Each structure stands twice: as structure tokens, then as C-alpha cells.
Automatic annotation (TrEMBL):
PANTHER family reported for this sequence: CYSTEINE--TRNA LIGASE, CYTOPLASMIC (PTHR10890:SF3), CYSTEINYL-TRNA SYNTHETASE (PTHR10890)
Record CDD domains: CysRS_core
GO terms under cellular component: cytosol
Domain tRNA synthetases class I catalytic: 23-309
Entry protein name: Class I tRNA ligase family protein
Matching Gene3D superfamilies: HUPs
Coiled coil: none
Organism: Candidatus Sysuiplasma superficiale
GO biological process terms, semicolon-separated: cysteinyl-tRNA aminoacylation
Amino acid sequence: MTVQIYNTLTRKLEGITGRGLNPLHINMYVCGPTVYDAPHVGHGRSYIFFDVLKRALILDGYSVSHLQNFSDVDEKIDNRAKEEGVEPIRLADRYSEEFIAEMDMLGVIRPDMYVRASESRDVMHRIALSFIRKDLAYEAGGNVYFRTSSGGGYGSLLHDTLDNLITGHEADNFRFVKENKEDFTIWLGKFDRSNMMSGRPSWNLECFSMVHKYFGCELDIQGGGMDLIFPHHEVASVMSKAYCRVEFADFYVHNGFVTLKKDKMSKSTNNFISVHSLLDDFSPESIRLYLLSVNFRQNIEFSITELREYEESISVLRKTARDSGALKNERVVGISEAEQSGEYWSEFQSALNRNLDTSGATRIMMEEMKGTGFKGKEGKSDFRLMCAALGLFNHRPSAPQSEK
């Protein structure tokens, strides 16, 4: 079977294949948080979704190399650190550690590597310098800009005419002097060709550089929220088409938002509910199922009432599984168990492989609970495989994630 997903690049449902020599090996990069505050439920939804995507791929026989960044070179961090009277790097350390701990509690399998922008300045500096030397970028007005026309311009993800370029949240404190309004910053402040600590890399350059460092020009999946389509992922596309002569990724996958009072959850607007506060009152399983209850491209208006309903469903599911003996101490599930599974797992996996239909897959799981109750060898295997796919009750697939 092949996992199919909606690709923002082509605006079609497509079967996932690797760009490299092995079509069943996937390089996946998911944009991480800017670490100046605690993770909120919107973050939780995004990383739970990509966690399930990775699980579905592994259970289908793929191997996955998964990379995620922390944006820890940012004015928001500098400003918050100044308010608290601490060093910016200490603040970033604290919230990076909190993010990892809370994703662990939510059952999100850790990436093969977390990479921090602060630890990759040398790579970003070298790439910016290479851009300048290749005439792909230029220095002007105290910043460095990417010459958009050198990459063929915009259009891979926007699918529309661009009237104005948003240069990023850094724009408020910098004066921009550009050759073309569509050019974007890759370095802010003085760029010293021999000193990477002069000025600082722009967010626009950050993810492109870290992907290039670890995957070169062989990125299969670029993931993140819908808000990253433009400018962040679009400018990565522009740079890649100029530097690598290929599209940045073969698959761009973007999830919808969790909204609160009809607005996107956001730390910058203080309109959010922290993951930590939810974990005080709800199980990780109920949070996961609730956030997976609608198609990943749709928004979810946060509802405590609906979350409580999922908590009740999880309690019944846990009891049924325990009574049938389906909950074992061993929670690592090999894909070989699929050979012992029944028709429910086959239907479940088919749903999951159709654009990661987690809502439909969950309904199939609940039908088996009401039907067979996970009894017998097939029922127990079904349950364990479903839990490994959805990340429930500490189950996880055992296939290697980084075998290339």
C-alpha cells in the first residue's frame, strides 16, 4: 500500500515516494517552534499530525529520516529575555526543553534530530556567502537580500500573482533597501564575510540551510502549518530552484489551525491554551484523538466539551482493551503483526492511507471495540497496530526510521 497525501505543490492527492535512490525512504523536515514561550494546543495539533504521518509511513514499510528545528535566533526571544532579565540562549534552552517534554507526554515520537538555528549559524553564513558569490543575493542598505528573479520567481505554492512581499516578522525593526520589492532578506544587519557572528540570519534562510546541511537537495516532505506556505516555504522554493536547480521538496504538507474564539491560536497575540494546562486535566490519548478528529487541512475551533467526550471514549476504549487482553506490556509493534491482523486493521490502514483520514480510521477502531471487542488473536493485533498508528497507550511502530 502507498500513503497518499494532499500536496500543496500540485494541489492534488498523491502517493508518497522518496526522491532518492530508494523510493521507500523518506526525508521529512517539519518546521519547529520559535522558542520564546510554552507550546500551545495549535503546536500540539501540528506535531501530532506529522507524528501520525510518520507512523503511517513506517507501518507501510517506509523508512523515515525526520528532522525538526528550533528557531532560537529571533527578536521575540531577545525581547522576552530582556523582560525576564535572562540571556536569550537560556530562555531558548528552557522553552526548547519544555517543548520536548510536552511532546513526549503527548506521545509524539521524537525526530531523529532536533536542530537549533543557533548551532547552525556557520552553515547559514556559508550559504549566504555562496549566494552572494553566485550573484543569487546582494548586499544593500545594511542587509543581504535574495535576488528572487534568479530562482525563477514565486509561484510554486502561491499559485497566484504576488503583489507585495512580506519579509517576515523582523521587518518592524529593520530598514529595507531592495532592488526589487519581491526580493527577501536572508541576513539582517551587517554581513561580515569572515565573521558569522556579525548581524544575524533571517528566518527566511534558516530552514533552507538546515535542510541543505542534513539532506542536501533530497528533501521529500516539507511540513508545517498553513501559515508557513507564504512566505516561509515559498521563499525556500525560490532559493532551492536557484541553488539546487530542483524544487525544495517533492511534497509540501500543511495542516490547519486550532482556533480559539474564531482566531488562530497564537503566542504573539496571547490567544492560546497551553499544552501543559490541558495535560493537567486530560489524558494524552483524548487530546490526540480530539486533534485528529477532523481532516488535517481543516481548522478546529477548540471546545472543552468535545474534548471531554473524547476523554470518555478513551476510558471505554482502554477498559475494553484491558478486558480483552489486548493491552500488553510490550508496546512496540512490528509491522510483521499485520500478518496476524483482521479486516478491521485493513480497513483502518486504507482510511489512514487516504490523505491521513484519522477521523475515518478512528471510527473503524471504535466499531471493532463495539463488535469483536479486540478479542482473539486478530482482534488483539488489530488493536495494537491501530494504537501504533494513532499513538495511543504508548504504542509505536518498530520499523527503523533512518535506514536509507
